[in-house]
């Protein structure tokens, strides 16, 4: 054999060996000795809960949108959002945070839990992931669901319609609750329920009831099946079992409190102030602060959707900020309450899905809400319930439950927005200087980034669902 040829082969072998060795060396060099080589589910769980509740209660998802739509808040300056002036960059935060942090990390917790056999981690992660998917579809409509969080195989996931997403969520919640075992393997990192699996079971069932009612006007059989199945299941049964994140001092304070530390854009809406005043509702001084300048009414709400000049003319000092309860750094980030469970149970009875006393459940729901906000005097509660305008109207459960649920959800914009659309009460007057021809928004528009990063799936979703507009009615929101 030619000597020169042999030398060339030997040289190539040496180069190849060096390349492999260098590759191994580089891989070793690039290992961070301070970073865990496997995912830590407790750390992931803490981060998911904190980031998700922050987003749920945050400015873009809550104060600057849903709280304005349902007229809990109004804007006293920079009033574009209160007039429904949004762009396709206005609703990025919920989409990006829920998908890239929440759903991605929860999917990883599920993977690790399956490998380790820790069914409690898997159940908790499934519950939280279901809640995030529900938030997304509640706000936007069709969303990536079945192909979501599959970066390794699907970079441009297809969107699923609400007729697919909600039943899928309900099935996942049922699976999650069945997996959970208070006597099973321990979990850590749970800043929502302090690693209490019994409370997670109750929360999971409360979410099943919530989302069964969400689709009851469109998928009655599925909704009825879930609600009937829940009759003998444990569910949130006191204010102590709320699903809520208790915040601390800065920098871990409640998002509304954090925003008011540096800004003064928001006031309590006239719609809810006047409703509470008319009903002699003892929650008025909890929800609204006295005006900075002395006024005859003490609590003064601001009309929604004013032009900047008109809002300025009414003034900062003569309109009410949210009450001190909501501006405390440690104010809870509520996800689901006992009052909501009771209202939902009352509605299930009113619809004839299950038997019971709808009026008694309705009154228990109002009582739970009053107590949640610190009104505990039995005489005050009884006097409030005795008013004709508060008493349950069996001929129109939507009005009674819808109005009182709207009040009880004050500050919890995303859920109040969903229930207002579903129940159609209270009947709100659109923004004074709104730009939607006398209509109130019915959804978020998709983030503009989806048009460039996932354009084909985005267009397919819009073609199926309807125009990507604020006033496009979603599937669950049946007329």
From TrEMBL:
Record InterPro entries = SusD-like_2, TPR-like_helical_dom_sf
- Recite the UniProt keywords alphabetically: Lipoprotein, Signal
State if Transport is listed as a keyword.
no
For whether the record's keyword set contains Cytoplasm, the answer is no
In the UniProt record, the signal sequence range is 1-27
Could you identify this protein by its name?
SusD/RagB family nutrient-binding outer membrane lipoprotein
């Amino acid at each position: 054999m030619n000597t020169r040829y042999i030398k060339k082969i030997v040289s190539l072998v040496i180069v190849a060996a060096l390349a492999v060795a260098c590759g191994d060396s580089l891989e070793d060099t690039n290992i961070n000795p301070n970073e865990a080589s496997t995912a830590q589910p407790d750390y992931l769980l803490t981060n998911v809960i904190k980031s998700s509740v922050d987003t749920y209660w945050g400015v873009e998802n809550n104060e600057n949108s849903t709280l304005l739509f349902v007229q809990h808040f109004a804007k006293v300056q920079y009033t574009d959002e209160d007039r429904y002036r949004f762009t396709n960059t206005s609703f990025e935060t919920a989409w990006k945070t829920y998908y890239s942090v929440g759903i991605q990390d929860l999917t990883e917790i599920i993977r690790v839990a399956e490998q380790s056999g820790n069914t409690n981690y898997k159940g908790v992660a499934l519950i939280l992931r279901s809640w995030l998917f529900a938030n997304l579809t509640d706000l936007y409509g069709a969303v990536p669901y079945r192909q979501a969080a599959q970066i390794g195989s699907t970079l441009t996931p297809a969107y699923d319609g609400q007729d697919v997403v909600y039943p899928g969520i309900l099935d996942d919640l049922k699976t999650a609750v069945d997996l959970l075992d208070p006597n099973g393997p321990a979990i850590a990192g749970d800043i929502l329920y302090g690693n209490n699996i019994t409370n997670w079971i109750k929360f999971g069932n409360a979410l099943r009831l919530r989302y069964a009612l969400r689709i009851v006007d469109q998928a009655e059989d599925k909704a009825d099946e879930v609600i009937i199945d829940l009759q003998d299941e444990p569910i949130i049964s006191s204010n102590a079992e709320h699903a809520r994140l208790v915040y601390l001092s800065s920098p871990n304070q409640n998002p509304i409190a954090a925003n008011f530390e540096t800004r003064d854009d928001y006031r309590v809406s006239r719609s809810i102030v006047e409703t509470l005043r008319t009903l002699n509702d003892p929650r008025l001084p909890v929800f609204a602060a006295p005006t900075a300048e002395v006024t005859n009414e003490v609590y003064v709400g601001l009309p929604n959707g004013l032009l900047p000049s008109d809002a300025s003319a009414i003034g900062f000092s003569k309109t009410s900020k949210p009450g001190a309860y909501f501006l405390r750094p440690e104010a809870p980030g509520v996800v689901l309450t006992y009052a909501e469970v009771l209202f939902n149970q009352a509605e299930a009875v009113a619809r004839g899905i299950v038997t019971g006393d709808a009026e008694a459940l309705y009154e228990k729901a109002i009582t739970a809400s009053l107590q949640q906000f610190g009104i505990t005097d039995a005489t005050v509660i009884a006097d409030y319930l005795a008013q004709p305008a508060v008493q349950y109207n069996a001929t129109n459960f939507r009005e009674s439950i819808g109005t009182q649920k709207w009040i009880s959800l004050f500050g919890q914009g995303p859920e109040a927005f969903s229930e207002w659309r579903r129940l159609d009460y209270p009947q709100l007057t659109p923004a004074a200087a709104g730009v939607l021809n006398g209509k109130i928004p019915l959804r978020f528009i998709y983030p503009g980034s989806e048009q460039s990063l996932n354009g084909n799936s985005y267009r397919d979703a819009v073609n199926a669902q309807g125009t990507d507009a604020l006033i496009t009615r979603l599937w669950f929101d049946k007329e």
